[in-house]
Amino acid sequence: MISSLHRPTLAKVDLSAISSNIKEVQNHIPQDVKTLAVVKANAYGHGAVAVANHVQDLVDGFCVSNIDEGIELRQAGLRKPILILGVVLPDEVSLARDNRLTLTIASLDWLEMAQEQQIALDGLLVHLAVDSGMGRIGVRSLSEANELIAGLRQAGSQVEGIFTHFATADEADDRKFQEQLAFFKELVADLDYCPELVHASNSATSLWHSEGIFTAVRLGIVIYGLNPSGQELALPYTVKPALSLDTALVHVKKIPVGADVGYGATYTSSQEEWIGTLPMGYADGWTRDMQGFDVLIDGQRCPIVGRVSMDQITVRLPKSYPLGTKVTLIGQNGNQSISATDLATYRGTINYEVLCLLSDRVPREYK
């Protein structure tokens, strides 16, 4: 999808906020713990290459979701270790090796498939995934872990790490978290061969569960300045949101009493009203369920009226404004502000999704 450079809709990314957030977390964890910056999904919508380039001297490596995201960083000149957190099938091993990408190995089935296909695994960098209760990927027993590690090493792979992922580290009730942590600790302690990098700490664990920090942490949403728990848990220290999103009024009109606005005629004016149109819609990631939420204009909250269209949004204005007037969708405008967490709360989702849904049609500007 091509970026729409010739319209006033623009996401601004403060790279200094991201580096500051990384330093803030690092100030609260042991100094000898390695930091892996999670830049998957285009760095949660912030721009993977720009973010990785900016923070590369602050971190020990990067985490991405799949092999193409890893290759993108390599092609951009990034040289630090890159761990692919998702499962890559064995037929892509040579591509991973050629690009010095570290693969996650999650099962004995994977190793058996590679051996059946006579795929060379020598020199391959790998981390072992452990399913401690998340239920997605990973081995589920000590015996499976030992057998898989031994098989990979025998095949010539370098088993550099082992990790798990917590399902509820961002929730007030920590019983599930403690069960997973106990399982993972016991498994790691009893391994026949323990890799150098042991990591279980995502953003939430790094913030609220120091007992879950091993030899490395994986920092995701927190480095972009957002609370992993949404509004459930208070942040133990301050981080700064890195992304703001602005657009501008491109059409302003007065409508009479009883006029309908938008698809489905879901909004009807109760009096004479000023309506403004914005060049932003669900194709940009501003989903249809945002009807009824606000944008900020002239330091005031203005409600979205009528359904969000693919390319346009209509809002109710307190008065007529000139075309080109700034409209803030995420960020500060006057004394008012809207965060990605505010949007997520309104939509009944999480701030991760709000940011990741911002499409490539929205240009990113970096400072």
From TrEMBL:
Catalytic activity: L-alanine = D-alanine
Pathway noted in the entry: Amino-acid biosynthesis; D-alanine biosynthesis; D-alanine from L-alanine: step 1/1
EC numbers: 5.1.1.1
Enzyme class: isomerase
Active-site residues per Swiss-Prot or TrEMBL entry: K40, Y263
UniProt cross-references to SUPFAM superfamilies, sorted A to Z: Alanine racemase C-terminal domain-like, PLP-binding barrel
Names of the cofactor(s): pyridoxal 5'-phosphate
Domain Alanine racemase C-terminal: 242-367
Keywords: Isomerase, Pyridoxal phosphate
Record NCBIfam families: alr
Function: Catalyzes the interconversion of L-alanine and D-alanine. May also act on other amino acids.
Protein name stated in the entry: Alanine racemase
Species for this entry: Streptococcus sobrinus
Native organism taxonomy: Bacteria, Bacillati, Bacillota, Bacilli, Lactobacillales
